[in-house]
Amino acid sequence: MKKTLKVVLVLVITLTFVAMFSIASIAESYDNFAYEVLNDEIMITSFDRMSRTVKIPSEINGYPVTSIDNNALLDLPKLAQINVDNNNEYYCDIEGVLFSKDKTELIKYPIGNIQTSYCVPDSVTSIAYGAFYNSNLTSIVISDNVRSIGDWAFQNCKSLTEIIFPNSVTDIGEGAFYDCYKIDSISIPGSITSIGNMAFYNCHLASITFSEGVTNIGNGAFYNCDCETVVLPDGVKNIGVWAFYDCDKMTSIFIPDSVINIGTDAFGYCDNLTIYGYEESTAETYASENDIPFVVREIETFAEVSKSTEPDESAETHSNNTQENKQNVNTQLLFLIVIIVLAVIIITLLVVLIVVVKKKLKK
What we know:
Elements: H1 2-26, E1 28-30, E2 33-38, E3 41-47, E4 53-56, E5 59-60, E6 63-68, E7 81-84, E8 91-94, E9 97-100, E10 105-108, E11 117-119, E12 126-127, E13 139-141, E14 148-149, E15 171-172, E16 185-188, E17 194-195, E18 207-210, E19 216-217, E20 229-231, E21 238-239, E22 252-255, E23 261-262, E24 274-277, H2 282-289, E25 294-296, H3 299-308, H4 313-362
């Protein structure tokens, strides 16, 4: 038995070294990046992490550069400029930003770019995986032709304060705005049918507005948001696991009867939540099974009730005026009391003075 184990161990070690040698023989380096030759084509696998500028050639040793690994450009903190050889048939750059050759896909916006705002060109129809990961942008304009926002496209953009989705967008990828916690409100247009897993995870959104069109809300999509009231439109079918988990400020949500699945802990740790919806619906069943208060209400009456619970500005103004009036009255009363007290003191002093004067005169 021991001999068998030794033989197996020797074989595993030998195969490991063979595999390592094979990889080392395939992987090569050029300038400030590593690459592999696959089927007579070059795939760039990684860049020097401290690179400030990278140049993507058209070919290496006669082999065309046709692809870049998804993670190769993802986390280069100092990278400010991406340049592409004009003869490259697969990629191009516009002012240091990497695009597909036909300029329909925005592939990478360099992390080290110091601009705070950016407009996506009109030619772009998709924003790639991790395209704006960890960028310093505070604002971005997404052009009206963009249809798809890729997985993790804006992950960790901690300075981004606003995002406006054009009606062309149909899909928001997994983790697309993960940890963009300065964005405080979003409006989902009717063109968007699916919101990916963890799409707005930890975004602290105070307001989420949905238009009719969304059918799927992914797992953890709005995890740890700060919204108080949410109205899901008719047509939503799936609310994923942990979709609104830890939204402890949420007090009410309307769930339409089109919803056929609500994932485990979709509203976990939403301790102040009341679910509104239709009788004998998936929402009512979920609320019952998870000890969440449920109120039977149609969307129209829910909207009316939601409006009635909003602060009345005129009432607030009236209240403020009343408070001001009370303060003025109190001030006047205090002033009157002070005058009376002073008058009493003066009269008392006069009386004492008169008494003293009379005594002296008698002497």
